[in-house]
Amino acid sequence: MNIDYIEVFIKVAEFQSINHASSLLNISTPALSKRIKHIENYFGCDLFYRTSRGIFLTDKGKIVLKKLTEIKSHLEKLKIQITDPINIQLRIGLLPSFSLYKLDNFHKNVLSENSIVKIENNTQILLKHLHNGDIDVLIGDISSTTANHLFTKPLYIEKYMIAFSNDNVLSKLDCINTSHLKEYKVFLLSPPCDTLTFVRKNFSELQLDIEHKPNLESLFASVKTNQGVTIIPQSLTTRLDSMDINYRPLEGYDRAIGLLAYKEELIDNVFKSLGKYGISSFETT
After folding, report:
1. 168 and 263 Cβ atoms separated by less than 8 Å
2. pLDDT per residue over 179-205, tens digit each?
3. Is pTM, for the whole model, over 0.70?
4. Domains along the chain?
5. No. of H helices and E strands in the chain?
6. Residue 227 has pLDDT above 60, yes or no
7. Which of 270, 232, 217 has the alpha carbon at shortest distance from 90?
């Protein structure tokens, strides 16, 4: 079986759609279908079953997916292990708050020069990409993972903030503590979400009235109309300055943003690139 077919199989299984996978992989639908059939012929059984709703793994297909995902991960890690980190084109996973709002200089210069960027909304998805070998290094919330087999390097500490409408009485306070949160509906993004993970870890005993929103736009709209409050990292407050939404720090809570990778040399390479543009380590203000 052609080694390139591994990615084909994984993407079709992930999206449960030949059309979606073919568009993503830039392969024609007939060619991709032919590759799937080739894989099934290789294993001598049906790995997918087709319906009007999409294409889905059979029980044997699930076994093959698990093994091929492991093989892909091993191959990517082997490539990282034997390749000179100075010469490779790094694949970096980023949080939107890092890549789009706080470090625009890094985004425009370092990434465009020698890196491929994958942006995801939360660290847990980035960690999955790192585990699967889809990225080499991620820049995310290092305080949200306890994996001891990863190398890490902190970049900055940022506070958690409570955002609320300008009409809210919270605007009279300099700082907000957890007792204030119990008085409001708290809007959070649907899981997986770094802030939701933080809330579950630290505030489960408060039994907060939480309502999930599919994206930041709908979340901020609900806050702006004084339907409740939200908890966001400090770096995202730049989105609020033009929206008539106020915010205050959540007393006693912050998070660490930093680099994570399976190989320390890769972290050092990215860290040096950050230092080149004067943004290797800083605190949000």
Report:
1. no
2. 899 999 999 988 888 888 889 888 988
3. no
4. 5-74 (1.10.10.10), 90-156+257-276 (3.40.190.10), 158-254 (3.40.190.10)
5. 11, 10
6. yes
7. 270
